[in-house]
């Protein structure tokens, strides 16, 4: 069953790679739906839609992983991710593309908590450091490979091929994990009776007993093939492909061309083909929902999952995401409508808190985060995300501003020096977690990252040409990598196993929200430094005596842009320093270590 874990880690890495691929392909995607590069703000929903799917429903997905078992959630997440890739690849306008990106985020987000919780199923608390480090390393490796995969695909094909590749890989991994889960029984957790150093799981009557990872479903439990459902799915798929592609021979045909004439308005969904797609899809979903096994699962979910609490929490998270994801940092930390998003999210949060006090079995069980390392891991993840995003966004911007002004690709590749060190640090952090307290390792890692940002805040225009800049980038990547496994190990070791999917989902949510808040706040503050530096510049005529722009004045403008990046890096250093301090204080006492490095290796 450990092979399933590594397949799941590869799936997480591929979903992470997709994020970086899309950033590289964004201009081509915009052109594909009729947007120019000057309309970048209109393309913001392509990013916010993905984040909305990734973050807003993550706690619900984590809870479902605890109830249904981790294997069904992994397979379902891959199927949804592949479906979103299919929609995005065939999208013809911005709305269709945003819907596809939402489903990609929904599926990709489901993979992380299920994979982390799977580690807890297969390893006891004191042996999780290394597998958590390896899973984190594979995930971060996806960040390294993302730009390279995107560049390679875009060199031989257009942006749609990227999502076609996502579709194929997602389906293959889903089939592989499902088949391997059916044929392989999980090994018992590597812990002797009385050894477990985490809270004992409370008895629960959950679906994981019948369809989860811990007890694979008996062969043949899926029932006979539903021919009508498959036929409806085939009709919906073919109709959607024809609707998206619009073959010239069909569109221009006097008879078949009627399939593309809207019954009202101009949207494709009201054409005969669009209506067939909608009706066949609804019919497929209804037919599947009427199957006894599906009805039984849905009934248990309705009975055991706090859907109202999940809905309120999703609305609260959505308000935060939309407030910051739709912002223009040149104007404010969040957009004008972002105020209303925050108000709506705040009201939903108040309703959620009130609901938690009254619900008999809330989505977040009472006491789930009672121990300090548990809620501390969530808080630390927020500041880790706020600091990390500065490196991911502003290191390439600094390279573009200074030495690679004519090449976006070369500027992006500078970040690889940082990203390559991340998985190395994650593996090292996993090994060290077995020997040292989690708080010490995470604190040391984030302190190293903070020091790296301090050096970045002192870079001049030629800094990236020297070896010292490479050392700084590698040190920063190692620092962030060192913190990944200890934080995850701490929350797994101090929460009940019956809710690991839920609790780990909150660390992912906190990290993503931290990245959103961090990039908006730090960029806004950085731009103020830029404007202040620009205001202090002498006039163009006093520097360029020959008229027009000259090299001397261009250097002054570059200096103002560097001042902006220095401010962002300094802010990131503060966030990393806070994460380091919180790690040492809040993760103290988490039972994450026990064995020697030799025993660690043999445990794998």
Describe the structure.
With 604 residues, this protein is mainly α. The chain is 73% helix and 0% strand. The protein contains 23 helices and no strands. The longest helix has 36 residues, at 500-535. The chain is globular, with a radius of gyration of 25 Å.
Topology (elements, then pairings):
Blueprint: H1 2-32, H2 44-55, H3 58-68, H4 70-89, H5 94-122, H6 129-156, H7 160-183, H8 208-211, H9 227-245, H10 248-251, H11 272-289, H12 292-304, H13 307-325, H14 338-358, H15 372-402, H16 408-414, H17 416-433, H18 438-456, H19 467-493, H20 500-535, H21 540-543, H22 551-586, H23 597-603
Helix pairs in contact: 1-5, 1-6, 1-7, 2-5, 2-13, 3-4, 3-5, 3-20, 4-5, 4-7, 5-20, 6-17, 6-19, 9-11, 13-14, 13-20, 15-16, 15-19, 15-20, 15-22, 17-18, 17-19, 18-19, 18-22, 20-22
Strand percentage lies at under 5%
Label the overall shape.
globular
Mean pLDDT: 80
* Topology as a string of helices (H) and strands (E): HHHHHHHHHHHHHHHHHHHHHHH
- Gap from first CA to last CA: 12 Å
How many separate helices?
23
This entry's quaternary arrangement is: single chain
Low-pLDDT runs of 5+ residues are 185-211, 213-223, 595-604
For the sheet with most strands, the description reads: none
| Gyration radius, in Å | 25 Å
Number of strands: 0
Q: How much helical structure, as a percent, in the residues?
A: over 70%
Derived from helix and strand composition plus strand pairing, the structural class reads mainly alpha
């Amino acid at each position: 069953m450990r092979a399933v874990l590594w397949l799941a880690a590869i799936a997480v890495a591929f979903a992470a790679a997709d994020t970086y691929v899309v950033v590289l392909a964004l201009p081509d995607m915009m052109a594909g739906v009729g947007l120019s590069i000057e309309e970048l703000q209109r393309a913001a929903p392509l990013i916010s839609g993905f984040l909305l799917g990734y973050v807003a429903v993550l706690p619900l997905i984590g809870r479902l992983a605890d109830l249904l078992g981790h294997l069904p959630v992994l397979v379902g997440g891959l199927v949804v991710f592949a479906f979103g890739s299919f929609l995005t690849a065939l999208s013809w306008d911005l709305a269709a593309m945003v819907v596809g990106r939402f489903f990609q985020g929904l599926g990709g987000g489901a993979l992380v908590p299920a994979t982390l919780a799977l580690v807890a199923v297969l390893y006891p608390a004191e042996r999780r450091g290394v597998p958590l480090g390896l899973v984190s390393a594979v995930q971060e490796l996806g960040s390294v490979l993302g730009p390279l995969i995107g560049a390679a695909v875009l060199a031989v094909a257009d942006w749609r091929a990227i999502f076609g590749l996502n579709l194929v890989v997602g389906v293959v991994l889903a089939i592989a994990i499902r088949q391997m889960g059916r044929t392989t029984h999980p090994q018992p957790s590597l812990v002797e009776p009385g050894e477990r150093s985490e809270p004992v799981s409370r008895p629960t009557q959950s679906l994981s007993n019948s369809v989860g990872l811990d007890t694979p479903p008996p062969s043949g439990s899926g029932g006979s093939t539903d021919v009508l459902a498959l036929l409806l799915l085939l009709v919906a798929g073919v109709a959607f492909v024809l609707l998206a592609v619009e073959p010239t021979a069909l569109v221009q045909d006097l008879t078949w061309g009627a399939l593309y004439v809207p019954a009202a308005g101009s949207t494709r969904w009201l054409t005969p083909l669009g209506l067939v797609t909608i009706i066949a899809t609804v019919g497929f979903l209804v037919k599947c929902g009427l199957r006894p096994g599906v009805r039984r699962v849905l009934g248990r979910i309705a009975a055991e999952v706090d859907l109202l609490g999940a809905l309120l929490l999703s609305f609260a998270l959505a308000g935060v995401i939309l407030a910051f994801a739709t912002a223009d940092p040149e104007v404010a930390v969040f957009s004008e409508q972002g105020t209303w998003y925050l108000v709506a999210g705040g009201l939903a949060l108040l309703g959620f808190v009130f609901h938690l006090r009254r619900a008999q079995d809330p989505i977040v069980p009472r006491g789930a985060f009672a121990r300090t390392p548990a809620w501390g891991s969530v808080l630390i993840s927020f500041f880790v995300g706020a600091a990390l995003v500065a490196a991911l966004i502003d290191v390439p911007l600094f390279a573009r501003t200074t030495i690679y002004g004519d090449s976006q690709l070369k500027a992006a590749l500078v970040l690889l020096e940082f990203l390559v060190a991340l998985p190395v640090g994650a593996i090292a952090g996993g090994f060290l977690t077995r020997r040292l307290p989690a708080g010490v390792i995470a604190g040391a890692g984030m302190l190293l990252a903070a020091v790296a940002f301090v050096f970045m805040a002192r870079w001049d225009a030629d800094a990236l040409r020297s070896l010292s800049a490479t050392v700084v980038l590698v040190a920063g990547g190692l620092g962030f990598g060192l913190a990944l496994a200890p934080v995850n190990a701490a929350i797994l070791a101090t929460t009940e196993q019956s809710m690991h999917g839920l609790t780990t989902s909150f660390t992912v949510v906190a990290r993503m929200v931290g990245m959103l808040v961090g990039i908006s706040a730090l960029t806004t503050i950085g731009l103020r430094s830029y404007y202040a530096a620009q205001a202090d510049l002498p006039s163009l005529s006093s520097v360029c005596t020959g008229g027009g722009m000259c090299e001397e004045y261009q250097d002054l403008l570059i200096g103002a842009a560097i001042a902006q990046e220095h401010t962002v890096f300094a802010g990131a250093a503060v966030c990393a320093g806070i994460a380091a301090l919180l790690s040492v204080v809040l993760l103290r006492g988490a039972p994450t270590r026990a064995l020697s490095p030799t025993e660690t290796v043999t445990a794998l």
